[in-house]
Amino acid sequence: MSTQAGTAAYDLRQVCRPLSFRAEWRRQWGRRRTRVAFALVVALPIILVVAFAFGDSSSGRRAGTTARFIDLAQTGSANFTLFTLFVSSQLLLILLAALFCGDSVPAEASWASLRYLLIAPVRRARLLTSKLAVGLTLTALATVVLVAWALLVGGVAYGWAPLTNPLGEDLGWSTYLARLAVAVAYIYVTMLPIAAIAFWIGVRSDAPLASVGGAVLTSIVLSILDQIDALDPWRNAFPGHYANAWQELIAPSPVWDDVVHGVLWALVWTILFVQLGYRRFRRADILS
User: Fold this and answer.
1) Total number of domains constituting the chain
2) What digits encode the pLDDT tens for the residues 161-182?
3) What is the SS3 assignment for 74?
């Protein structure tokens, strides 16, 4: 009897194992879209260096936030990394967050493999948690790889000068790296609502393009609405309204008010759509 019980427990572990974080990580990391996404992350800093090499640097000073980053991007690794982070946080990182968190469930459904995973005697929440956790981990990893690679590429291309802001003030490397780490963490948090929206759409559809495209389109529409002053103060609650508040952390005297508001609103929207996703997935007839 004990032998049969041990065999049954071993078989149950074998069934449950495909739903573990490790198994899901291997499944998602082995997909072509993940490798293409990380290849794009690695290629972006190199593309920017090439673009600067062939561009015209004699066009003079420009106005605006983007212009300030561009004007200082070639002064050293610190400024180049900030420029890379600025341009990528506008769309690329948002797209990756939507891809990693919104694609896994509908992709399994479209391949008809989701129904076989759900035959296992494990709660649906466990399957969904594994997929969401891997998606969030891949998003964080892509963000960190982009910043670290940009620091290295910028140092090789432009030297290792410390950060110089538009007013000519320098920020030492120790202070800069600490502030940069906080800024990267903040950018990651502000991407979570889009990831959660993609996750919610993904559990409602078997088309990966619908989840990714729907989340990115939502981000674009909210960004457009955020430019309308007549929507004050309601637009302050939009996901992405405080997305650029991380720039205030790099200043010699950082300002934290917008950062705190951005984190709180991002968590509110993230929790809301993640809960909606779990609620939908528990009730949906996935096996039909």
Assistant:
1) 1
2) 888 876 566 788 999 999 999 9
3) helix
